[in-house]
Amino acid sequence: MIGGDEALSRCRELVDLAIARGADAADAVCRASSSESVGVRLGALEDVERSESEEIGLRVFVGSRSSSIHTSDFAPEGLAVLAERAVEMARLAPEDQYAGLAGQDQLFTGEMPDLDLLDPVEPSPDALRDAALAVEDAARAVAGVTNSNGGSASSARSVFALATSTGFGRSHAGGSHSLSASVVAGEGADKQTDYSYRTVRHLGDLPEASIIGTEAGERTVRKVGPGSILSGKMPVVFDPRVGNGVIGHLLSSMSAPSIARKASFLIGREDQQLFDSSVRVLEDPLRVRGLRSRVFDGEGVACGPRTLVDGGRLGGWLTNVASARQLGLGLTGHAGRGSGGAPGVSSSNVWMEPGSVSVAELIADIEDGLFVTGLFGQGVNLVTGDYSRGASGFRIRNGEIAGPVAEITIAGTLPEMFKALVPANDLEFRHGIDVPTFRIDGMAVAGQ
User: Fold this and answer.
1) pLDDT tens-digit map of 215-239
2) Would you identify the CATH topology of the domain 4-220?
3) Where does the record place the Metalloprotease TldD/E N-terminal domain (predicted)?
């Protein structure tokens, strides 16, 4: 895999080629990655995989017309052909008054802070195999586990580089280590499966394999013998591992391109109080060892901490250059970029602040409710805010977690859900989006 300096050099070369062939402006991105993973099942090695990829993409502007093209051919003659074709395509493209590069005064400058995203430790295949065996062994050792879907361990590295004709040129590297287990409990028609996993930047930050494996086994065994629940409106409590998806829907709907396309249920709610006044949602792209940390976005704009929801109210839309121009807004450092195509919008490390009550206190007054640990289906409409998902989890009876339930549907609208959301105090930082356990009263639940 190429390093950051070489990736940036290729990007600059490609931008220069495009300008020489008649482009008025251009930017180039390079992405490279390598990964190695080992999977085991029932104590035996099942697969060993290693992958490497390198891609470079070019976006050119001829007046207000633009095109984008990408390749995995890094040879000088290949890059020359790529630049020529991109300029030819741009001349034939429709005009777009909003597309363009970020201004020089909006770009990141100065020293790159050390966010410690790249671990110097690269585990060997033997070490990955041992970790995968250990996490599966721990899961299978839980009483009630009857089979295994396997254990896996992986390590990955990546490089991102961006160069623009306005003078920006930076690269950064990162890495990750992951460990997971998935097992089966129960027999016959009552088989249940569940999992546990962790992904971190540094190997030393991974919990012990026994912790992850035991968690996978215990989660699975708890699901055996599910019942149903009477249909009706009731309190629904979201486990953090599924609750972060609700905040993910919020972030998608705050995307300025969605606002510009009039494809978000948040349009017209900019000044409304969406959540309880105690709710805050924060973002910190500069978190050391954060899973989504970055110093600059996909257009070279500086990233920084931001309050997305404060006092229950939105802190503004998440923009890239095109949507900011269309809506007359400033840049927020949220441009997301693949190796090809125009930039989109993406968030970094996001979390909801914890509340003041424990999970036990949060559910103490619920006579009959649902504790959701699993969601499936795609029944979320971000244009209208309608929400309907298949769910599984546990029944709440008289303030206590009761038996498992499955084949249930929960429904509501995202504005109503946000307004009723009450967080507990059990926030942990594990993912790119983190939330505490939270409760939403009055959701429609369809069971028996």
Assistant:
1) 999 999 999 999 999 899 999 999 9
2) PmbA/TldD fold (3.30.2290)
3) 26-90
